[in-house]
């Protein structure tokens, strides 16, 4: 019995020792696992920190890239604006060069005229020298008296020329002021005609046209072919309104410079992406309508980029003059009975506009004649002064000889 108990005790002791060793082994394994876990956690934390750092660097670089892209867009927009300004300046310079051509021709004509007058003055000067030689043959006293009388006559003529020149200058200023006032009245009359013509000339040759406004007929035709009867009209209005907004957008500049008709002009850039897409999707008629509105708005209102009203000759496809519009209204009034007071008032305004236009034409002709007269008088003025200086010098010489 005791042996059994001892055996059980030994077994229990061996089992306890074995279990203790196993516990120690497990503890060793657990410690190693904890160490590896700590290392893994530290590595993971380090990787997470590096990841966060990389993410922050990525966000920082993305912000830099977005800022650079924004700056590039701004610089591109500024460059396009400056390019547009330079193109406008070049066009203005070309226009000024064209305007200078007739002025240069007029200046050349004036130079030729002055050379001719200078030759005439030389002839008169030679004749005057001959007269001086004749005066020298006289006695000193007679020469002195004759020179004095001639000087007095020349002084009187010079005073008369000065008065005449002052009168001409005053008349010139009055005519210039009158011309400015007449031009201002003509512009007001043109604006008044533009405001009342839509109610008077609905089916005539001269009517009011909105320059830069997209023509809707091509949009209606193409939408009638592409869409159903229920929606073609709405789609036509939407499409024409969309392209009208694009035409009015100042940032869209589908133009390029080309040498045409002997000078540089702005024409449509057919390689523009929007115009190419419009032509391929909606056809040539719609494309032509948009191109025409772009050319009109670039000619009549390039800075504001909105449609403006203008008197238009629809028969000849050009800008109508004020005279044509007035004649058209008069013809319309002849075809109806003037029963209303409004027609009488309108006839009065038309008559006043006609008188103003005739006055402007007459004023311009008077201005040209007056300008030529002033130039001629100034030349005579200069010649008279030179003659007086020569005579005075000769008189001094004669008096010195006489005194000696």
TrEMBL record:
Transmembrane segments: none annotated. Residues 209-337 form the Factor of DNA methylation 1-5/IDN2 domain. InterPro entries: FDM1-5/IDN2 (IPR045177), FDM1-5/IDN2_XH (IPR005379). Residues 79-171 form a coiled coil. Keywords: Coiled coil. Pfam families: XH. This is Factor of DNA methylation 1-5/IDN2 domain-containing protein. It comes from Ilex paraguariensis (yerba mate).
